[in-house]
Please model this.
Amino acid sequence: MYGLIKTIHVITALISIGGFVLRGIWMLRDSPMLQQRWVKIVPHVNDTLLLASAITLAVMMSLSPMTQGWLMAKIVALLAYIALGMVALKPGRARSVRIGAWLAALLCFAYIVAVAVTKSPWLIS
Model:
């Protein structure tokens, strides 16, 4: 069961970042695709599955963010990624701010993956 949940977690993470990159490209091009209904719904469904699989894995492994620094680091970085993503993809802000937030969100995602691989908030295994 662990292997299945981890696979779901990895696949939904890849879908999440792929969708975020695509929406960022659409933002850069001022594409009307960003206004499509499915573009606003699908990421939330996928990210719900991603979060559910993360929580399931943590429970299965008896991990707590209060005792595992790397897990807390992932959660904090995830919150930063979400906030930056909202700034990047929500219209109304200056284009330069949106681009900067998009790039910073991509760096947060890379950090989250690196922490997951090294199991260290300092990226040293």
About this structure: The helical segments are 2-28, 37-60, 69-89, 95-118. The chain has a mean pLDDT of 96.
